Amino acid sequence: MSQLSGSLPRPSARAWAEALTVVVAALAAMGAVGALGLWAAGAADLPSGAFPAVLAATVAAAVGGTVDVTGGAGVLGRTGATLAAVPLSVTLAGALAAGAALLRPPRHGPPSGPAELPARAARAAVLWLLALLPVARAARHTFRIGLGSSLLDELGAALGAEPTVGFRADVGATLGWGLVWLLVVCAVAVCVSGRTPLPAPLLRLRAVAGPAVRAVAGLLLGYVLLGLVVGVVVLCTRGHTARTAAVLLLGLPNLAWLALGVGLGGAWKGSVPGGGIGLPMPRALAAVLQEGGGEATVDLTSLSRHDGRTWVLVAVAAVALVAAGFLTARAFPAPLWWQGVRLAVVLALGLWAAGAATGLSARYGLSLLGIGELDAFGHEVRLYALLPRLTGLGALWGLAAGLLGGVLARVVPAGTTRG
Question: Which InterPro entries does the record match to this protein (predicted)?
Fold first, then answer.
């Protein structure tokens, strides 16, 4: 017992300050990326000083919270909707900042023991919830909508039927999913970290899952970087600079991971109004989502009807996965069957999470966040992944890539790579 107690870090003021660094880093990164993206999208022009509330709603949505969209016309009626969309650029920025701060060695002296990192994560979780609470409560605003003429506006005011529309974050959902988000970030950081002291159970977890988690995390980040390169080229060559920058700063992983899933044979279903969502999207994707007047299926077949280059996504996904399997097998040798199984399981989970996070459901909610027009009340935007199909294909691709990567690691002469 004395040995165990001696290995536990003491929750001093310095320890709480290090945990606070994790929270501040995450919120600062999310706030900066979100503010720039919203500014590029035009949210700074929203009336009534709504920008801070919109930014708070964006941060809440980035950690998995939902935003309730409300509206009414006084005693004559009320309407409501829900905005469920994750601005994954903001999410990823916060995750990278929080993970880096969590794994940062203590400033004064070496780590006190294997329990230090879990203890820091626990303290960060407490402070994270305390910080998210004011963010969620600040994410609310109401706008008054004109009826189209001064006479109608005066008549509406006299009848108590002044139309309003607004939004507010669901505090409970924001805190609950925000805690889950931080715990997932901590778990991934533990698996990715190579030499950080950990308790024995977490060491075993890292030994079993760490190599595949590194591979899948690198794959997802690599797709985001590739998407960033493509986005910068589009930004520099095709105009719409501000709106394209807004896509990069708010939803780049949404598009990059959709491209990965489609390249692996996955599919999404959805629809957007004829006017789009107020931000540019790939031409083929927009054409598929707007065809037929109902829900359309987004997959290789439907996209290739509008752009034959879509099939390149298959080659890119295959090369990326085999490279991930090869590098994992080279750095972390294991029996061939285990190479395939561990990559299959983690890739299936990673694609399930990515597919779920790319979902979008909104009825005039996006316009309240500064994207689109405030009078688009009848428009509904939907996009959701077919998760069973995506997860199953992820397992099959992961198994094949793990086996092939393991074979290549045995055939190709060893270089200097070593875990």
Answer: Streptophobe
